[in-house]
């Protein structure tokens, strides 16, 4: 299906959504064609292609067998264990069938949840595909999350089965998963029927009789079994992916089946230009949204080869990704601005040592892309950078460049224009620092196919969190919580979050989650966490704490010990990714007269900016203390 130019496509998607998406839906295999396109009878809830029946595993694997059984489907490279596993479509299909059979033997069926706690290894996509094959709902939890974070997710989605392994590795360090998982299962009220554990040979496993099973033994037992796909309604949830919100409780983003599959295939044509048979190297972990969309489903549904990567971009040396590009010749590379900033600091000879000429485009998303980074990598690789902006909630790019629609039109500093189906507006527009109009980016519902239909088990929170605002004309809108500017041609520039979300290296963290973890330490009376600009990671976590008088450190050694103990608290409760870069001990936190912590003021001072209007501040002296603390650092 040739794609029209961008403007024609976007205009049509809004003017005639039913026709537009009916045509797009033809990219997918439907066992039963959808009788309807968009059911928006109950705003803001929308049901795309309701009544149509399909299956994501069928579209990702079975559908390609006649033509590409021997083509690699998945190449999982680990520079941590020095292993590469290459699976053809036929082999991946066989592995997925065996695991689907194991899941069925353990009582997993339509609508049951399966929690996947694995590193970025082949078993992850295999487990995900096995779930959707039988209509089970997977929830992948990023391997870097600590036991209490895992326990909250277990209690929220109540999995029947958990799939995990002995250990993950990062930067050469082995992270044993079983102690984390056992602790999470002890903390959680919901108890799974079975825990299936894969052994990578990194750490010995101890199986709890009756609950824990050796996954590898189970797979051998079920090898060769074929499990028929379960055709599910387009609106059937395919997975739940947790993401940080402004409260301590993460939000279970629900994904449908048909709408998202159609959206992914649409993006493969218009944004990614990926042809069947080509390879797509997506460095995102499967525990994040980008990994779901382009590390697994979008890529496989398109009949491409997915290159999965466990490791850092600089080990064994900073040429590793370019070496992979030379060896496997992907046409598309998707990573984060942080990764590129890390590589930019390294000796550039590493980049020029390898042949990267297979690459057509480089996709970057997850956090703001600064111009020097974008320009550097574009000239170093000699391919255009396609910045794209989206959220776990949307499941696919909201803003992007569209190289698949004729020519790639871009504006420096902007991730581009609205994707098909997105009608954008700015809320509470005001004059920005440079005379431009800025406001909070919002979307007129219905949200396009593929966006989250609700939060898991919490329709009320879905509405009250995301649909609380109205636009200037009183119309219902979806709030992205991102500050943005938009020009007359529709190019949007993202300025940063309007809520308390911190974005560290493209990973969303809620200030509340981290504050709650630190408050668990007996010495802490109060604390405030903010995200401040960081040269490499985009943002870094900075914490201000008030210590109970009887716990105040007596000297510098005691202070350092306390800071380390607080960092450890965050490591253990949220995960090392959320560990504060700085912890400042203060006598008080800056608060408004109504008692709200002025995080905005702390952030401004930590970034060396003017904290702005502080007329609501209760005690101006406290802010002077914050300034001293953060600038001394
Ligand atoms: O603040 C925006 C930022 O990341 C948030 C969404 O993060 P997450 O749910 O983890 O989804 C990531 C999927 C790519 C957004 O609300 N963000 C994402 N992409 C960009 C971005 N900020 C600026 N430019 C981007 N390209």
Structural notes for this entry:
It is a single chain. It contains 20 helices and 31 strands. By secondary structure, it is α/β, with parallel strands linked by helices. The mean pLDDT is 95. 32% of the residues lie in helices and 24% in strands. The site of adenosine-5'-monophosphate-propyl ester (PRX) has 21 residues, from helix 11, strand 25 and strand 26.
- Average pLDDT number: 95
What class do helices, strands and sheet pairing give?
alpha/beta
Count of individual beta strands = 31
Overall, the morphology is globular
Which segments are poorly predicted (pLDDT under 50) over 5 or more consecutive residues?
none
- The radius of gyration computed from the alpha-carbon positions, rounded to a whole number of angstroms, is 24 Å
Q: How large a portion of the residues is in β-strands, by DSSP E?
A: 15-25%
**For the largest beta sheet, what order do the strands appear in spatially?**
5-4-17-16-18-19-20
- What hetero molecules are in the model? adenosine-5'-monophosphate-propyl ester
Helical residues, percent: 25-40%
Count of helices?
Answer: 20
- Measure the end-to-end span: 57 Å
Main beta sheet: strand number and arrangement? Answer: 7 strands, mixed
Provide the fold topology:
Elements: H1 6-15, H2 17-25, E1 38-42, E2 45-48, E3 53-54, H3 56-60, H4 65-68, E4 72-78, E5 83-88, H5 89-105, E6 113-117, H6 123-133, E7 137-140, H7 147-157, E8 161-165, E9 167-170, E10 173-176, H8 178-187, E11 194-198, E12 212-214, H9 215-222, E13 232-233, E14 239-243, E15 251-255, H10 258-272, E16 279-282, H11 289-301, E17 305-310, H12 320-328, E18 332-335, H13 337-344, H14 349-352, E19 361-364, H15 371-381, E20 385-387, E21 399-400, E22 417-418, E23 424-431, E24 437-443, H16 459-466, E25 478-486, E26 492-497, E27 501-504, E28 507-510, H17 511-519, E29 524-534, E30 538-547, H18 556-573, E31 582-586, H19 599-606, H20 620-632
Parallel strand pairs: 4-17, 6-7, 6-8, 8-11, 11-12, 16-17, 16-18, 18-19, 19-20, 30-31
Antiparallel strand pairs: 1-2, 3-13, 4-5, 9-10, 14-15, 21-22, 23-24, 24-25, 25-26, 27-28, 29-30
Bound molecules: adenosine-5'-monophosphate-propyl ester (PRX).
């Amino acid at each position: 299906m040739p794609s029209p130019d961008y403007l024609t496509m976007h205009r049509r998607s809004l003017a005639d959504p039913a026709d537009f998406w009916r045509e797009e839906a033809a990219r997918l295999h439907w066992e039963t064609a959808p009788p309807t396109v968009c059911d928006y009878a109950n705003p803001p809830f929308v049901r795309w292609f309701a009544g149509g029946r399909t299956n994501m595993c069928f579209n990702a694997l079975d559908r390609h067998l006649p033509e590409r059984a021997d083509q690699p489907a998945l190449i999982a490279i680990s520079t941590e264990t020095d292993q590469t596993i290459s699976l053809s479509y036929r082999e991946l299909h066989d592995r997925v069938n065996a695991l689907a059979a194991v899941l069925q033997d353990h009582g997993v069926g339509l609508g049951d949840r399966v929690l996947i706690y694995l590193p970025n290894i082949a078993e992850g996509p295999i487990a995900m595909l096995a779930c959707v094959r039988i209509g089970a709902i997977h929830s992948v939890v990023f391997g870097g999350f600590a036991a209490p974070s895992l326990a909250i997710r277990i209690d929220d989605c109540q999995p029947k089965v958990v799939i995990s392994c002995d250990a993950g590795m990062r930067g050469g360090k082995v992270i044993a998963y079983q102690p984390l998982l056992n602790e999470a299962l002890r903390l959680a009220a919901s108890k799974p029927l079975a825990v299936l554990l894969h052994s990578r040979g990194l750490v010995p496993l101890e199986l709890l009789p009756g609950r824990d099973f050796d996954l590898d033994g189970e797979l051998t037992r079920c090898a060769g079994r074929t499990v028929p796909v379960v055709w599910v309604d387009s609106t059937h949830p395919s997975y739940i992916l947790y993401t940080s919100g402004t409260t301590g409780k993460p939000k279970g983003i629900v994904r449908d089946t048909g709408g998202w599959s159609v959206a992914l295939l649409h993006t493969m044509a218009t944004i990614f230009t990926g042809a069947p048979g080509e390879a797509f190297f997506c460095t995102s972990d499967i525990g994040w949204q980008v990994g779901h969309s382009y590390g697994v489903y979008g890529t496989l549904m398109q009949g491409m080869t997915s290159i999965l990567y466990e490791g850092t971009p600089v080990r064994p040396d900073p040429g590793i990704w370019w070496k992979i590009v030379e060896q496997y010749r992907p046409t598309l590379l998707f990573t984060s601005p942080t990764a590129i900033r890390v590589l930019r600091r390294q000796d550039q000879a590493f980049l020029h040592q390898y042949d990267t000429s297979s690459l057509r485009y480089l996709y970057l998303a997850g956090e703001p892309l600064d111009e020097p980074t974008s320009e550097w990598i574009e000239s170093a690789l000699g391919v255009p950078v396609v910045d794209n902006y989206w959220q776990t909630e949307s499941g696919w790019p909201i803003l992007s460049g569209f190289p698949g629609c004729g020519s790639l039109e871009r504006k420096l500093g902007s991730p581009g224009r609205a994707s098909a189906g997105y009608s954008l507006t700015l809320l509470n527009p005001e004059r920005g620092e440079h005379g431009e109009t800025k406001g909070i980016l919002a979307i007129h519902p219905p949200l396009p196919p593929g966006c989250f239909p609700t939060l898991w088990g919490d329709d009320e929170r879905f509405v009250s969190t995301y649909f609380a605002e109205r636009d200037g004309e009183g119309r219902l809108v979806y709030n992205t919580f991102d500050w943005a500017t938009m020009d007359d041609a529709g190019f949007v520039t993202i300025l940063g979050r309007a809520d308390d979300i911190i974005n560290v290296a493209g990973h969303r963290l809620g200030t509340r989650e981290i504050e709650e973890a630190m408050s668990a330490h007996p010495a802490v009376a109060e604390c405030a966490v903010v995200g401040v600009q960081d040269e490499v990671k985009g943002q870094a976590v900075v914490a201000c704490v008030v210590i109970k008088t009887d716990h105040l450190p007596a000297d510098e050694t005691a202070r350092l010990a306390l800071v380390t103990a607080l960092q450890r608290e965050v490591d253990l409760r949220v995960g090392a990714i959320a560990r504060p870069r700085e912890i400042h001990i203060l006598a008080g936190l800056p608060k408004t007269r109504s008692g709200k912590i002025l995080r905005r003021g702390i952030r401004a001072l930590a970034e060396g900016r003017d904290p702005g209007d502080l007329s609501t501040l209760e005690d101006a002296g406290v802010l002077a203390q914050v300034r001293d603390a953060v600038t001394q650092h």
